[in-house]
Amino acid sequence: MATEHLSPLDLAFWRIESADHPMHLGALAVFRATGPGAAERAAHLLTARCAAVPRLRRRIRDVLLPVGAAAWSPDPGFDPARHVFLVRTGEAVPHAAAGPLMARPLDRALPPWEAHVLAGPDPDSFAVLFKFHHALADGLGALALAATLFDEGTAPRPPVRPVPEQRGGSVLRRLPGILAARVQDVGQALEIGAAVARAGLPLGVPTALTADSTGSGARAVAGLALDLDEVNLVRKGAGGTVNDVLIALVAGALRRWLAERGDPEPWGAGPRALVPVSRRRGVAGSGGAGNRLSGYLLRLPLAEADPLRRLDSVRAAMDRNKDAGPARGAGAVALLADHVHPLGHRLGGPLVAQAARLLFDILVTSVPLPSFTFTLGGSPVREVYPLAPLARGQSLAVAVSTYKGTVHYGLVADAAAVPDLAALAGALRAELDELVREVS
Asked: Where does the record place the O-acyltransferase WSD1 C-terminal domain (predicted)?
C-alpha cells in the first residue's frame, strides 16, 4: 500500500500545534434524549461504530523521506476506549464542561480525534463534544467523519474516492503543463504575499481581542442559538447574504461587548477577521478527511455606530473578496503552505504559530450543515455549536452553523483574557434584535 503523506496544509496544522494552543476543531451537539440511559447508549454506539471507520483508526507518524514530512498509518493498537468517553458533568449547560475539554490537546501518538458524551443533570438531554485535529479534517471534512458515527439513514456517507494512479511514463508528455503550473503557482504565492503586506499591521485592535503571547492554556466556551427567520428578515430588508448578516452580527456584538466592559471606543478600520472558505463542493463530495481551505480577510467595522452601515461595510468587503476569488488576497494565506518544503513546516511551525497576530486578529468561520435531522441511538440532535481552534496571541474565535432553522454561534476564548464570554453571547442576541427593529 502506498504511503499517504499529509498534504502541505495538513502538515502545517500538525506542526504549528503547542500544548497551550492545540489545533483541533470541535462540534458540540446537543441531543434530545429518547429515554433513560440515552447518554450511556450513545457512548456505547460511538465506541462500537468508530472501529469500523478506517480514517478514525489512523495516526500520524514522521517519515524519513521527504525530510520533515509525516504520513498516515494504521494504529495497530487502536482502542475505542481511548477515544470515546462518558463524562458526568453535573452541568445543566454543556458549554461549561466543553471549555476544559477543548483546552486539552489530543494525544499525538493516537489517531487525532475524541468524542466526549456529556451527561448532565437533565434526563431529557445530553451532549457530545467531537474533537478532530485540524490535520485530520477541516469543518466540512469533520462533519463527514462525524456523520459516519450517527444512525444509518440520518446522515450521508461520503463516498470513498480512489487515488488516481500516477504513471511515470507520461511525465515527459506532461512536462510543459507542469512547468506552466509551477510558474503560475509562484506568481500566486507572490501575489498573496504582497496582499498580506498590504493588509496592514494589527493596529487599533481592541485589547480584549488579544491574549498574552504564551496564552493561559485555559479555554472558555459559550454558545447562542438565534432564529434563522430573523436573520433572513434582516437580509431581505438590508440586502446582502445570510453570511454577511452573520459576520455583521459579530462586528456589532463586539462593539456592544466592549462598551459594556468599559473599554475604549473602537477606532480605525477595525480588527482583521479571517473568514475561511471551503474549496469542497459539499459533504457528499468532500472526499473524506484533510483540508481544502482558502479564506477571505476583511476589517470588522467596530468604529461604525450605525448597525445598518456596519452591515453595508461588511457586505461591500465580502463582495470585493468574492470578486477577487478565494485564491487571491491576504485571506488566501493558507494556500502558501503548498509552497513550503516539509522540512520548512517542521522547523518553521513554531514561528508560523507565533506570527498569527500578524496575519489576522479574529477567526470568524461558518460550517454549513445539511437540512436533515441527525440522530444517535434514536436521540435527535437539536443544537450544533461548531468550535474553532484559538491562534496564539488571540483571545477569541467565532464559528457559526445553521441547523434546522436555527443559527448556532460557538464561541471559544482564552479563559484568562475573556472571563466574560457569556456577555459576548448576550451581545449577539441584542445586536440581532436591533437589526430586526431597524428593518421592520
From this structure: 290-435
* Predicted pLDDT of residue 430: 98
> What span, in angstroms and rounded, lies between the C-alpha atoms of 40 and 86?
7
Strand order across the beta sheet in which 70-74 lies: 4-5, 70-74, 58-62
Cα of 1 vs its chain's centroid, Å: 31
Greatest extent of the chain over all pairs of C-alpha atoms, in Å: 68
Reported as a single tens digit per residue, the pLDDT across 10-59 is 999 999 998 888 999 999 999 999 989 999 999 999 999 999 999 999 99
Q: Please tell me the distance from the alpha carbon of residue 366 to that of residue 342, in angstroms, as a whole number.
A: 29
Locus of grid cell 477606532: 267
Q: Amino acid identity of 406?
A: T
211: Cα separation from own chain's centroid: 19
pLDDT exceeds 60 at position 154 = no
Rounded distance between C-alpha atoms, residue 438 and residue 431, angstroms: 11
- CB atoms near residue 75 (< 10 Å): 16
Helix (H, G, I), strand (E, B) or coil at 254: helix
Q: Are 321 and 273 in contact (CB under 8 A)?
A: no
251-268 residue pLDDT tens:
999 999 999 999 998 988
Res 330: pLDDT: 64
According to the model, what pLDDT value does residue 338 have?
73
pTM: 0.88
Amino acid identity, residue 414? D
Q: Is 417 left (phi over 0), alpha (psi -120 to 50) or beta?
A: alpha
Collapse the DSSP code of 155 into the 3-class scheme (helix H, G, I; strand E, B; otherwise coil) and give the result: coil
Inter-residue contact 13 to 345 (CB < 8 Å): no
Residue 28 near residue 384, CB atoms below 8 Å: yes
Which secondary structure element, helix H or strand E, spans residue 43, and what is its range? helix 38-50
Q: What is the DSSP letter of 207?
A: G
Burial status of residue 159 (CB atoms within 10 A of its CB: 0-12, 13-18, 19 or more): exposed
Question: Hey, what's the cell of 229?
Answer: 427567520
